[in-house]
Design a protein that fits this description.
alpha+beta, six-stranded antiparallel beta sheet, five-stranded antiparallel beta sheet
């Protein structure tokens, strides 16, 4: 009997088919796993390389943005009234003030030079004569900040010098020069992680190391990247577009990635140990072997399951599944009678799963409707919050007037509208007279009350489409659409009279203030910025001639040279 069963088992076409299927599948899985492993190892290497390069490029963008912002701040600082005064006491006090000190870190200096490249003052609290920069003053131009090569001074930290032109109508041109310490960039470098044991090196075009995690060893004095084991590296032209391993002086191989910005002469080298990458590749191999073993186990279980399967109940089950797959969830349950074998259990489990799916789909539909409602509500709340944030970003906190950023956008829109309609519009530059004396006499709180009072008074005299903005400090800028110079003078005089007539009560004090106003009509040949400068010039003349008056800029005073400079600025602005 036993031999009969064995002979029947050997002659079974089902057994033979399943045995053939197992052998074929094992071969397919083995070959597939091999190619999968090779591909995954290559993918792991490429992923590691591309990830390191992407993170390095992002780091490069961050540090380059840090230097760009420093240059922009230098340009703005050079345009400040105190710096442009070229007065050693005024400018020196301003550069040493609390507000300006926040722009610089320890070891950084900023120095003001006159047009003969002689030092006027700096922000040093000690001996100002010891501050020097490796900078060619002839290369400092008004178009963009000048940046020197990397250098080291007394604290032995790599630095660069940024230079910006100072234009002062009273005393002539000068230069504002500041040192930019590489310590500003170290916070980015220290946060940059490369795998588990990788590290970052920063260099300049000459191959000098500007940063290494071991600061004491590599930055106590100038060191070259060649000392680290990276030979024949041309910082300006070196590229790592493909997988590259570098053997270093410590005897280890590293995966190298590189990023260089020629504008700021900064090269970033990312180094990840090859042993660490090999460990990742070994993990891929281990996973592949586990997948192969699991695949073999699954195939054996599947073969056994097929041998025990009964075709009729299975076909019924397949038909039932196909109906549900087609979306017919209301199909009746499978009826298998009182069978307690695998088919019966599978059928009952499937019926239970079918009913569970129908219930969960109903619950999911209800939950989805609730989520859609919540998303709609949250979206509206977010839109409202964004509108409030946008309003805050465009409004001066003290006076509640539009700030300089919002005013610049309004001016840009008005220029476009005026260009289309050819209707004139004017600027009125307003400055509160002797505002510093008010602050010194009554305190900054009184100064704030005066700013708010003047702003409220001027705003109450405007038309609904006129715009008043706080332009900085005690200065305000008014935009009068569809108004010529004669009309703007009338409005400006009304401002002056009303402010002069009002009395501001602060505590027990009654304070009287006056304002000086500069008026200029928008000149299509000069553009918005230079037209505003004309109003500023008129204001300056009013200040020089006694204050508490309205001064208009006569368009006939605008020289041909100014139009040429405006045209050159327009050409330079074209990308």
């Amino acid at each position: 009997m036993r031999n009969h069963r064995l002979t029947k088992f050997k002659n079974s076409i089902v057994v033979k088919s399943i045995a053939f299927l197992i052998v074929a599948m094992l071969l397919i899985v083995a070959v597939g796993t091999y190619f999968f492993t090779e591909r995954q190892m290559a993918t792991t290497l490429n992923w590691t390389f591309n990830t390191n390069q992407t993170q390095l490029d992002q780091l490069g963008s961050s540090v380059n943005n840090e230097m760009k912002q420093f240059g922009d701040k230098m340009t703005l600082l050079a345009k400040s009234y105190e710096v442009q005064s070229m007065d050693p006491l005024i400018a020196g006090g301003y550069l040493k003030s609390y507000n300006i000190s926040d722009l610089f870190i320890s070891g950084e200096t900023v120095t003001l030079y006159d047009r003969r490249d002689s030092m006027v003052c700096n922000n040093s609290m000690l001996d100002a004569n010891k501050v020097s920069y490796p900078i060619n003053f002839a290369k400092i131009t008004p178009h963009r900040p000048y940046i020197s090569n990397w250098y080291r001074d007394s604290d032995n930290t790599p630095k660069r010098a940024f230079g910006a032109v100072v234009s002062d109508r009273a005393s002539g041109d000068g230069s504002l020069v500041a040192s930019f310490s590489s310590r500003r960039l170290w916070k980015y470098f220290e946060r940059h992680k490369i795998g588990k044991d990788g590290f970052l090196i920063a260099i300049n075009a000459a191959g000098e190391i500007l940063y290494h995690p071991d600061l004491k060893t590599w930055l106590d004095e100038p060191h070259k990247i060649s000392e680290f084991g990276i030979k024949e590296l041309n910082a300006r032209h070196f590229e790592t577009s493909d997988l590259t391993f570098q053997h270093l002086s410590d005897g280890k191989d590293y995966l190298i990635n590189y990023n260089y910005n020629p504008t700021y002469d900064l090269g970033l080298i990312s180094l990840q140990p090859k042993a660490e990458i090999d460990e990742m590749v070994s993990s891929v191999k281990l996973i592949s072997w586990a997948i192969l073993a699991c695949s073999i186990l699954v195939m054996l279980i599947a073969a056994l399951w097929l041998m025990l399967m009964l075709w009729r109940p299975m076909n019924r089950l397949i038909v039932h599944i196909n109906q549900i797959t087609d979306g017919n969830l209301d199909v009746k349950d499978i009826v298998v009678g009182k069978r307690k074998d695998e088919i019966g259990q599978l059928s009952r489990s499937f019926n239970l799963m079918h009913n569970t799916i129908k219930r969960q789909i109903r619950e999911l539909n209800a939950h989805r409707e609730m989520l859609e409602q919540e998303v709609s509500e949250r979206t509206k709340e977010l839109e409202d919050a964004n509108k409030k944030l946008d309003l805050i970003s465009r409004t001066d906190e003290l006076t509640k007037l539009p700030n300089r950023r919002d005013m610049n956008e309004t001016i840009e829109n008005e220029v476009g509208r005026s260009t289309r309609t050819r209707k004139p519009f004017c600027f009125i530059f307003i400055d509160i007279d002797h505002f510093k004396n008010v602050n010194d006499t009554y305190g900054h709180a009184a100064g704030d009350e005066i700013l708010k009072a003047v702003a409220e008074m001027v705003r109450s005299l405007l038309r609904k489409y006129d715009v008043l903005a706080r332009y900085g400090g005690e200065e305000f800028l008014t935009l009068l659409p569809e108004t010529d110079l004669e009309g703007a003078l009338i409005v400006a005089e009304r401002f002056r009279e009303q402010v002069e007539a009002m009395t501001i009560e602060y505590g027990e004090h009654k304070i009287k203030v006056t304002i000086t106003l500069g008026v200029a009509q928008y000149d299509y040949g000069l553009g918005a910025d230079r037209s505003i400068q004309l109003a500023d010039k008129a204001l300056y003349e009013g200040k020089e001639s006694g204050r508490n008056k309205v001064v208009a800029w006569n368009p006939e005073r605008t020289t041909t040279e100014e139009y040429k400079r405006a045209a050159m600025d327009t050409v330079d602005a074209v990308p």
